[in-house]
């Protein structure tokens, strides 16, 4: 059980990284069926993570701080960019184009990492600070959503 | 509440890129200087031409790249935006570029330029340090990277202040202990500024780009403090003339640098990426060179038969500046520049037009070949310290080749960016 939002969601970031690496290894071996199935698992994990943030965490943070135009808005925008990059990578995989996939995956990886750094260094500590009194209900809710996805995978 | 609500104001593309494009120009000037001076340049680290060469690399190449990168990285890792980034970048860029040129002119036999160099570099770094400190002022040091960035700014300020003092002393022929002050200036520049900044950034980017485990928490927390405390203590005891303490603390600085490089290599070996790309190779070579430089420095310090030879300071300098910092900086350019091109194109398209992925920005084979040219120029420079008569000119030519190629690759990225900007604008204006 995690003791705060930062630890919980940071661990989920690392889990998503590992899933993307698994896709990379499958592509490197030119094992396209494996790459496609690994990519589906990765994409589902990413989308769940975005969903958990956009539907549960961010609205609470915005309500508490009274701002919907601050960092959460920027994070939503970056989620949109990553969704597009995942679509690009998925199309490249479907076409069996290793170079195009590598380019999208590399861009996605850096986008993910710089996004994660902002969340882990700045946004999550702010969430922990502002939402501490909701931990008793909020942490199990976030964990459940993430675990449901992991169970499904 | 943390004043960190301004992620969205990512600096404009021109702010970091003007520094990145200028860096290879100074390395090209350094190469031309080697070709002009020939084997004489490798006689001693203290000749005027060698000092000019050193500053073309450190102030011309490294400082440009490091300040440009800092403007870009502060909002990402610390949520700290430099106010009026276009203005600050333009003034700092112009000032430190002119400063590096004046400094070289001063060393190359035109002493009045030392005062001008002091003015330009003083104004440029003071403005940068003030703007960065202002941005970081309200940011809590919640992790070692943020603390490391703050402490490295102190390292930069002290390095430049000592440099100004030396520059004015040379320009005005003041009676100061120049050799001792130069050693202190060098230690602050290498350890408290450059290694401290490199480590603060590495804590984030090595795990981020190469998907390695994180640096051990204790190491990360203590390193940035050690990188500033050791130079402070060493400078004091050295000025006081306490020989044994001075040697001990200087050795500790070398060991600290070596430990960072070893730790980074160890993490890299645990990286999980499927491909070992150019950026990772450049990092690896950079870290190996830093370890070699530390080893050589320690051997020269304790083995008189090596310490008395004229070659080792030059070898050490090339290992640190060309092998260590230039390699890592080039490796970082190949990640940062294509990503920034993608990011700014993506933002320009407003999410409606998908930008070409970052691997299309600079052709992979151009990156690979430039990297090999850089490695070849490094190896030749190192060997030229032992056989200057044979290798000084080839080393100059190869450094010229590697950096002209680097400039070509960076310019290719800008051309790509402009072309796609025009296409995106045309598409948007065509669809209401």
Question: How would you portray this structure in words?
Answer:
The complex is a heterodimer of chains A (153) and B (432). Chain A is an all-alpha fold. Chain A has one domain (5-147): nmb1532 protein domain like (Four Helix Bundle (Hemerythrin (Met), subunit A), Up-down Bundle), CATH 1.20.120. Chain A is built from five helices and no strands. Chain A starts with a helix and ends with a helix. With 432 residues, chain B is mainly α. Chain B is built from 13 helices and no strands. In chain B, α2 runs parallel beside α11 (311-348). In chain B, 53% of the residues are buried. At the A-B interface, α1, α3 and α4 of A face α2, α6 and α11 of B.
Features:
heterodimer, A: 153 residues, mainly alpha, Four Helix Bundle (Hemerythrin (Met), subunit A), 87% helix, elongated, B: 432 residues, Cytochrome C Oxidase, Chain A, 13 helices, 0% strand, disordered N terminus
Detail the topology: elements first, then pairings:
The complex is a heterodimer of chains A (153) and B (432).
Chain A (H helix, E strand, L loop, with lengths): L4 H24 L3 H34 L5 H24 L3 H33 L4 H18 L1
Helix pairs in contact in A: 1-2, 1-4, 2-3, 2-5, 3-4
Chain B lengths: L13 H24 L10 H31 L6 H23 L4 H26 L6 H29 L5 H33 L6 H24 L2 H27 L8 H25 L1 H4 L3 H38 L15 H21 L3 H43 L2
Helix pairs in contact in B: 1-2, 1-3, 1-13, 2-3, 2-4, 2-11, 3-4, 4-5, 5-6, 5-7, 6-7, 6-8, 7-8, 8-9, 9-11, 11-12, 11-13, 12-13
């Amino acid at each position: 059980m995690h003791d705060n939002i930062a630890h919980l969601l940071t661990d989920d970031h690392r889990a998503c990284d590992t899933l993307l690496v698994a896709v990379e290894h499958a592509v490197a071996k030119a094992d396209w069926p494996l790459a496609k199935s690994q990519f589906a698992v990765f994409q589902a994990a990413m989308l769940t993570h975005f969903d958990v943030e956009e539907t549960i965490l961010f609205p609470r943070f915005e309500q508490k701080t009274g701002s919907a135009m601050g960092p959460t808005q920027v994070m939503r925008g970056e989620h949109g960019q990553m969704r597009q990059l995942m679509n690009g990578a998925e199309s490249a995989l479907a076409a069996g184009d290793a170079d195009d996939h590598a380019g999208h995956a590399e861009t996605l990886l850096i986008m993910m990492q710089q996004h994660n750094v902002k969340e882990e260094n700045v946004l999550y500590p702010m969430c922990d600070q502002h939402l501490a009194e909701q931990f008793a209900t909020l942490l199990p809710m976030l964990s459940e959503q993430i675990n449901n996805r992991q169970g499904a995978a | 509440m943390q004043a960190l609500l301004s992620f969205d104001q990512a600096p404009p593309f021109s702010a970091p890129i003007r520094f990145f494009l200028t860096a290879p120009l100074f390395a090209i000037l350094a190469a031309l200087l080697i070709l002009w001076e020939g084997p004489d340049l490798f006689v001693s680290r203290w000749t005027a031409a060698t000092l000019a060469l050193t500053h073309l690399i450190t102030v011309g190449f490294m400082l440009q790249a490091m300040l440009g990168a800092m403007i870009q990285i502060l909002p990402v890792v610390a949520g700290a935006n430099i106010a009026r980034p276009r203005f600050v970048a333009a003034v700092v860029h112009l000032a430190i570029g002119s400063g590096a040129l004046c400094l070289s002119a001063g060393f190359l036999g035109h002493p009045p330029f030392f005062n001008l160099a002091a003015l330009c570099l003083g104004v440029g770094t003071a403005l940068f340090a003030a703007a960065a400190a202002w941005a970081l002022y309200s940011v809590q040091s919640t992790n070692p990277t943020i603390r490391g960035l703050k402490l490295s700014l102190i390292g930069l300020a002290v390095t430049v202040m000592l440099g100004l003092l030396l520059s004015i002393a040379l320009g005005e022929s003041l009676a100061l202990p120049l050799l001792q002050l130069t050693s202190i200036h060098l230690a602050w520049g290498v350890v408290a500024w450059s290694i401290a900044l490199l480590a603060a950034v590495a804590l984030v980017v090595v795990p981020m780009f190469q998907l390695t485990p994180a640096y051990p928490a204790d190491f990360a927390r203590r390193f940035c403090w050690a990188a500033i405390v050791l130079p402070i203590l060493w400078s004091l005891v050295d000025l006081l003339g306490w020989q044994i303490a001075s040697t001990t603390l200087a050795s500790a600085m070398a060991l600290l640098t070596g430990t960072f490089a070893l730790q980074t290599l160890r993490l890299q070996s645990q990286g999980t990426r499927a491909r070992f790309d150019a950026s990772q190779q450049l990092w690896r070579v950079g870290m190996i060179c830093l370890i070699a430089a530390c080893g050589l420095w320690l051997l020269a310090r304790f083995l008189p038969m090596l310490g008395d030879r004229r070659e080792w300071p030059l070898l050490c300098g090339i290992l640190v500046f060309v092998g260590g910092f230039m390699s890592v900086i080039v490796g970082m350019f190949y990640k940062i520049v294509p990503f920034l091109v993608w990011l700014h194109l993506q933002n320009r398209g407003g999410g409606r037009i998908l930008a070409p992925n970052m691997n299309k920005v600079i052709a992979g084979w151009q990156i690979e070949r430039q990297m090999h040219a850089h490695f070849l120029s490094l190896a030749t420079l190192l060997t030229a310290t032992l056989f200057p008569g044979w290798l000084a000119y080839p080393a100059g030519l190869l450094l010229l080749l590697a950096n002209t190629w680097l400039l070509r690759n960076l310019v290719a990225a800008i051309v790509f960016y402009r072309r796609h900007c025009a296409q995106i604008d045309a598409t948007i204006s065509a669809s209401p």
